[in-house]
Amino acid sequence: MRLDTLGVDESVSILFPPAALADELAFLPVSTTVVDGSGGELHGCQAVVTFRHWDAYDDLAWVHSIQSGVDQFPFDRLRAADVALTNSTGIHGDAIGEAVASYALAFSRRLHEHVANQQDATWSPPEWDEAWTVHGERACVLGLGTLGRGVVDRLTGLGVEVTGVRRTATPEPGVETVYTPAKLETAVSDARFVVAAVPLTDDTRGLIDADVLAAMREDAYLINVARGAVVDQSALIDAVNGGSIAGAALDVFETEPLPESSPLWGMDEVIVSPHCAGFTDRYHEHVGSIVAENVDRIRADEDLLNRVV
């Protein structure tokens, strides 16, 4: 694979300034430049680091996604054009883990209520039995990859007992019991928190449906830091409105941005965040480390790290 010029697409600005990553990669033995793939302006690049896929990428040798999820990339088309695709798996565990811990603590300590009351200058302490501690509670983490591992580490640090779900029941450090998806309803049935941290695939689309929600405890909270389509959003709204679960913290949605008309905005026991659980001021540094490693591997004619296609 020939690599003389590496582009940083403008689309990465959703997470950090393109120039910040270009500066981070300035030490590489290739030229690095900011490009606009939406307009086909690739300035002779053979590779690009991007948030979005553009048609112009058919002419490249390598595309790197700054996200772990790559469901927005056309795998078949990239294969046909002989374009390698890599992702940023491995860099999000700390941020996602802390975000999930924050959601759990917000619910238990009723912080979301206090923030809402502050907007109305309302002094309203919770009832004596409304606030609780997460220590000794149980969480079920769906997906024990990098994201799930970050969640497990943070929650166990808070004294939460953790079970997990993944394709094989291989034991995982810090996880009391690992279930397979065939036992998903059993896995979630005894958890105060059910955390979705799986990639979006054909197998995980709609994974958390009405049956799974019905299997959850009435005082349980769903936390979704995976992809919106992993959860049946209509079924979730019904479950919260009907009181079959206590609430949800959602960072991802079926449609993004979340439409103003969505009832999720006005639900007291739902925390909405704008797909930002993985945000950190060092995001560009973490992406840069993977990109730099793969530039070295290309020059050494070695297999790419985190190759998806």
From TrEMBL:
Domain named D-isomer specific 2-hydroxyacid dehydrogenase NAD-binding: residues: 103-277
Keyword Ubl conjugation: no
Superkingdom to which the source organism belongs: Archaea
Keywords associated with the record: NAD, Oxidoreductase
Keyword Oxidoreductase: yes
A Pfam family annotated for this UniProt entry: 2-Hacid_dh_C
PROSITE patterns xrefs: D_2_HYDROXYACID_DH_3 (PS00671)
Gene Ontology MF: a single term: NAD binding
Protein name as it appears in the record: D-2-hydroxyacid dehydrogenase
Organism: Halobellus ruber
